[in-house]
Amino acid sequence: MDINATIIGQFITFAVLVWFTMKYVWPPIIKTIHDREKKIAAGLEAAENSKQELELAKHKASALVHEARQQASHIIEQANLHSAQLVEEAKGHAKIEGQRMLELAQGEILREVTKAKEGLKNHLAALAVSGAEKIIQRQLDPAMHDDLLNDLVAEI
User: Fold this and answer.
1) Using CB atoms within 10 A of its CB, is residue 18 exposed (0-12), middle (13-18) or buried (19+)?
2) Which residue, 141, 140, 139, 133, is CA-closest to 153?
3) Is 0.70 topped by the overall pTM?
4) 122 vs 30 pLDDT, higher one
5) Per-residue pLDDT tens for 73-102?
């Protein structure tokens, strides 16, 4: 192998080319590669964070749905209890009102019975007086029979 000026010239040219490439071409390429790596790493990290946030949001949403269902069932249960209570109150009021109406009817019946008894007493007294008048007309002493009839009416 002969070393001649061409090989030395090629070596020097190659060395200058390597130096020029390392000094001016290689740093922007490396910088671009590093920037690209950083962007990719940031994108992957953002994707991972987004995935975690999505999972967290799913858990929160399911917890909210579960809580809403519990509240709804509690509200329904309270409404059922309230409606049952209202029904019981209405039954109680109806029972009291029925009892009051029954007492009023019984009082009215007693008044009517008393009124009928009084009417019968008065009618009986009138009949007794009428009978007594007939007896008195036949007898001579009307004052004595009148006293007897008044005593009779008072006893009735």
Assistant:
1) exposed
2) 133
3) no
4) 30
5) 999 999 999 999 999 999 999 999 999 999
